[in-house]
Amino acid sequence: MRIDESSLPIRAESTHTTLAKEQLLASLRSPYYRREFVRERVKSSVALQIRALREQRNKMTQKELGEAIGMAQTWISKLENPEYGKMTVATLVRLAVAFDTDLEIKFRPFSTLIDNLPMQDGSYYDVPSFTDEYGDLRNDVIEGHASEGLSPTRPNKVVEFPGPMGGEYESAALVSKQGIERQGVQLQRMPSQSEAGQYRGQRDAYR
User: Looking at the whole model, is its pTM more than 0.85?
Assistant: First the structure.
């Protein structure tokens, strides 16, 4: 007999979790507490993530990580110190490249914090690399270039890039586009919907 899971009652969160959320909300009602809580949580969370990801990469040493991002071992030790908290966005990006992960820096409402923090466990710090998730695709790319008579060391790859999006989103996209071009990859801009419509109209007029 097959059971319709949609008809099953939703498991209520534990009394302990509910109490933890209520206590956290009560504390966060103080502006001073909110400010200091965010400051300390961000410092400690980033430091613990850096250490966890380093150890997940085949027990990489601080010296090895420092070599990967162009820093001395003493600086890696500082980055992993929850009391330091002075890492820059540029340093975090370099770490993301070394760990082969994405990086998201995002403001969020306190409701998200209250919902998630009491249920956060050790798995929060488990972040697989791209290769761990999808395998090593470099050989596939090189073999694909070879079969097409292209050199994998030259900018033969053409990547389509979205057309105008407007406002700050277009500016952010342009920064990303320029950064990718500096890596030797040609970018081909995709037409916007309005541009595509104009092109189709001109094409039909000459038929």
Answer: no
